[in-house]
Amino acid sequence: MSSSANSVIVLDFETTGLSPNMGDRAIEIGAVKLMDGKVVDTFQQLMNPGFRVSSFIESYTGITNNMLRNAPSCAEVMTEFATFVGDSNMVAHNASFDKRFLDAELELLDIQYSGQFACSMLIARRLYQNAPTHKLGDLIRYKNIEHDGVFHRALADSEMTARLWMVMLEELRSKGIANPEFAFMQKLSKTSKSALRSFISQHVK
User: Fold this and answer.
1) In the predicted model, is pLDDT for residue 1 greater than 80?
2) pLDDT of the residue at 157
């Protein structure tokens, strides 16, 4: 497992609803593998949750019941995805949501993973306190990050999040933190805004 923040897997789920505890399932996963800050691989797959998705989710994600009808099962896709992840650390925008679904889907398959999670949204809240909101689309526009205008599809969102992640690492580099560890990013996401400056200055080499 790389402990560097620029070698991670950035992932995003599209789901049937907000909570696996309420019976919601994943319907798409997209992920980008970064090694030393470069995209070296991607993963994208629709998956059939075994029941019809609501018209709200169809219009929100653009993923229709018709598209899911012949998609492989969640079990098949998530088994393959666990291999793709290996022991990498992971990043997601609003990571608590994606982690809940990853944990729930892998628990059904009795698959463990050893990587840790960091949340790009929480980190952006600290680094970009003047952004209008910290939703992914708004941050992409705020930082003028190139995008194709597609949001709420798993691979497009994970690609955007990966670009945002690299922009945030660049921001830290400009503050004197050249190659932060993944653990540093996790701590940064939990640092209060008032303590941010001293936290960063402690880590400048």
Assistant:
1) no
2) 94
Distance CA 120, CA 122 (A): 6
Domain assignment of residue 2, yes or no? no
What's the confidence (pLDDT) of residue 201?
94
pLDDT at 148 over 90: no
The total number of structural domains in the chain stands at 1
Query: Cα-atom radius of gyration of the chain, to the nearest Å?
Result: 17
pLDDT at residue 13, as a whole number: 97
User: Which residue, chain included where needed, has tokens 């933190």?
Assistant: 177
Structure confidence by residue, pLDDT tens digits, 36-79: 999 999 999 999 999 999 999 999 999 999 999 999 999 999 99
**Predicted TM-score of the model (pTM):** 0.96
- Strands in 9-15's sheet, in edge-to-edge order, are 38-46, 26-35, 9-15, 90-92, 117-119
Which tokens in the block code for residue 79? Answer: 């088994």
Phi, psi of 113 (to 5 degrees): -135, 155
DSSP states of 90-155: EEETTHHHHHHHHHHHHHHTT------EEEHHHHHHHH-TTSS--SHHHHHHHTT----S--SSHH
The DSSP bridge partners found for residue 42 are 32
CATH code, domain carrying 189: 3.30.420.10
Does some domain include residue 1?
no
Q: Domain of 103? A: 8-202
